[in-house]
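Let's sit down with a protein and look at its sequence and fold side by side. Go ahead whenever you are ready, and we will take it from there.
>
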Amino acid sequence: MKFAPNPFTHAIRKGEKQLGLWLTSASNSSAEIISSAGYDWVVVDMEHAPNHMLSVCSQLQIFSGSPTTALARPDWNDAVEVKRLLDLGADGLVFPMIQTVEEAKSAVASTRYPPRGIRGVSGVTRANKYGRITDYFERVEEETTIIIQLETVSAIEHAEEIAAVNGVDGIFFGPADISADMGLLGKAMDPAVWDLIWSAARKLIAKGVPVGTLVLDPAFAAKLLNDGFTFVACGVDTALLAQSSDQLLAQVKGDLS
């Protein structure tokens, strides 16, 4: 059995627009509902969600039967957690709160086997279909998407150097934390936040670096993709449920006599 190509990895390298969704409900049912919706990619979040290894594993299993690429976000740049997520078969990783070139190199190293990195070796994991994928060791590093998340003013100032680290496939801007770092907590859509993001994003786009983000405004998500962003998540599963349940209740109440 041969290693199947990762469509998201190859799509962003070619500059193809990729629309995604964030998963924070830690729910198999939610994952199953979303898996057939047609998104290009999703992120199973461990940083701001009650996910653990078993819940991540079950969601990855659900998405393995769909065309949607399932990435995972560890709760920190932790080599042990990264090793376990890769062994579970995550198609890619989104590393939160990377501040420096050294931290980006450390993130990449945790996804590489020796001598290129520090990932521990196991011959029988879900990732290699329990030893059945014969070219796993040769192909996994090329196919696994490595996304580095910039979430502070300082990190953005070093965006070009961080993006140039060998093994980094894309840069993800986190507007919520960037706004907080700018003294604009809770104002992720403030124009000053996006002026700062664009100051770095334009330089990266000009160099052919895929850039992405998460926003909850669908029109703004489309605009970002049309203006040069490569991968944008346009919603969060829990937010979609909250918004739709609120709207339904308000609509029915409004029609009561």
In short: The CA atoms of residues 19 and 129 lie 28 Å apart. The longest helix spans residues 237-254. The longest strand covers residues 18-23.
